[in-house]
Amino acid sequence: MKADPAAQRRLLDLAGVDGELARAEHRRRTLPEQLAVEEAERAFRAAADAVVVAQTALSDLDRDVAKLDREVEQVRTRETRDRQLLDNGSVSAKQATDLNHELASLERRRAVLEEEQLEVMERQEAAGIDLKHETSAYDEAKTALEDAVERRDGVLDDIGVQEARRGEERTALVAELPADLVGLYDKLRSRGGPGAGELVGNRCGACRLEIDRSELRDIQAAAPDDVVRCENCGAIVVRTKK
Q: How far is CA 124 from CA 54, 71, 121, 211, in A?
């Protein structure tokens, strides 16, 4: 293939732009800010789960307290009824004895319930404190996640601006170059390395490897408009020195 030497030299500009685009893409894929977001997401999910656990525990205790309240109230109601029956003297001696036994039993039952009630209420208070703590941790984790996302998105926006600018530069450069030369360059670049590199001394600027002496002589002896390739990496070797 032949191409104007000036067009070949412009390939170096294109390779430079493509190099910046490749670095921008690599940066996009390996952002430390993205890792920070992922870590913040894990912490946020853990905090959210902890809140659910604390809410469930408090809800269970609320239900237990309400149940004990009802049971205590039922016992008190029955005690009140029995005392009223005794006080109004409308029962027989045997019934009075039975009522006194029942009142003693109810009093013991109420004492047990009230003791259990006090214990559960203490646990309920502790669970409420725990829920407040977990909710505060959740709020902090949420804020940390929002901050991490904002930092990451800011970096991604900067990368996007850079990619857009370099994309415009690339489009302009490609429009100036012969289509067959760009086609070869893009084909070579698609293999994973630079499509072109400057000949610096005896080294290829694309792969940074030394070129064999005999191959180097052939390259140097080629016509200025000959498109020559590196024997090591296959990239177009651009000769900038006459």
A: 11, 18, 5, 79
